[in-house]
Amino acid sequence: MHTITANFKTLKKVNSLPFLDDLIQLINQYKDEFVIEGFTSDTSDNRKFRPLNSHNLSLALNRSPILTIGGNNQNIFEMFISQGDGTFLVDRYITSSITIDIASSYFFENNQLSIRKKQILLDYCMQLYCITEPLCGYIHDRLDASAIGVALGKHGVTNFFGIHSISIGHIKLPHAKCPISGIYWGNYFGPDCVEFYGKHILSSLKGIYNYKELRDGGVLFFTSDNPLTPDKEQTRTNQLEIWKQLKITPLPKIPIIKKYKKTILKQKTHYLERLLQFFKDSDQGIGGR
Q1: What pLDDT digit, counting tens, does each position of 68-78 carry?
Q2: DSSP string over 56-95
Q3: In 3D, which of 158, 157, 138, 170 has the Cα closest to residue 252?
Q4: What's the CA gap between 65 and 80, in Å, rounded?
Q5: Distances (CA, A) of 221 to 59, 174, 282
Q6: Cα dist from 15 to 77, 85, 134, 243, 286, whole Å
């Protein structure tokens, strides 16, 4: 089963009560839709969730840098809050990160992709964008996002006597306040990202399926109509075309993406995938290297 992930990198203080008040209001709005029980820092199978309130969340974030919001039916929805202190280090900011995971099965009704469910995801992410005021963000298939990270690595996927080894790479940081990690299905560029690249450049990119200017001066653009088909030839072509136009380097190696995904699916486990995505997002939280 695949998972759609959305990630927003922000310099806002995610442990502040005003921020958490807004976040909890959004979570409660979709509490029944996503079967949300509360929050936890526990990663065990029998984890217990504590009731959501700003005070408890703030205290928990002061003790643990990462919290999970969701429920024991974790196959539907989970949110992860990763806290950074916003300081500038060498050439990048230590950002906080808000990530949501939604199972691909959620988007199907009567064995067909539900336009209504996709719109719920987009509405939720738009509200999350407004709350986080991110430098950047993206929506993508989680396995494919991990595969892109591996495809940027020096060696990709290697097999040594039946033991698979991987290396993870990152793009060259475009700008301190534009810490994008690539181009994906849905791409949020905050105002600083837009200023860096230029709105006239972004609005005229070839490969964009849909483009929207946001009220804060940011932009949102998509590379296809369906988040569940990252391997579709036109979708991949659109994404790589935008990588080239924005001069994002290096480019991910498509054969390695395919090899990595084949390896993961053959193992029939999401553990490595989730671990890779965690380290990828954590590293990108400080701008990526």
Answers
A1: 999 877 568 99
A2: HHHHHHHH-SEEEEE-S-TTTEEEEEE-----EETTEE--
A3: 170
A4: 10
A5: 36, 18, 24
A6: 21, 10, 15, 34, 18
Looking up tokens 């939604």 gives 102
Quick one: residue 65, left, alpha or beta (phi over 0 = left, psi -120 to 50 = alpha)? alpha
pLDDT tens sequence across 166-213: 778 899 999 999 999 999 999 999 999 999 999 999 999 999 999 999
Token code pair at residue 219? 């932009």
**Domain spans of the chain, in order of start:** 1-134, 141-284
The SS3 of residue 29 is helix
Closest CA to 177 of 190, 166, 163: 190
pTM assigned to the model: 0.88
State the pLDDT confidence band at 158, using cuts at 50, 70 and 90.
low
Encoded tokens for 169: 């790479």
Tokens (6 digits) for 237: 């072509």
Q: Is the dihedral of CA 105, 108, 113, 116 positive or negative?
A: negative
Helix 115-132 to helix 17-29 angle, to the nearest 10 degrees? 170
Alpha-carbon separation of residue 212 from 97, 100, 190, 222, 226 (angstroms): 23, 22, 12, 9, 17
Beta partners for 160? 163
pLDDT level of residue 248 (50, 70, 90 thresholds): very high
Q: Which residues contact 16 (CB under 8 A, 6 or more apart)?
A: 58
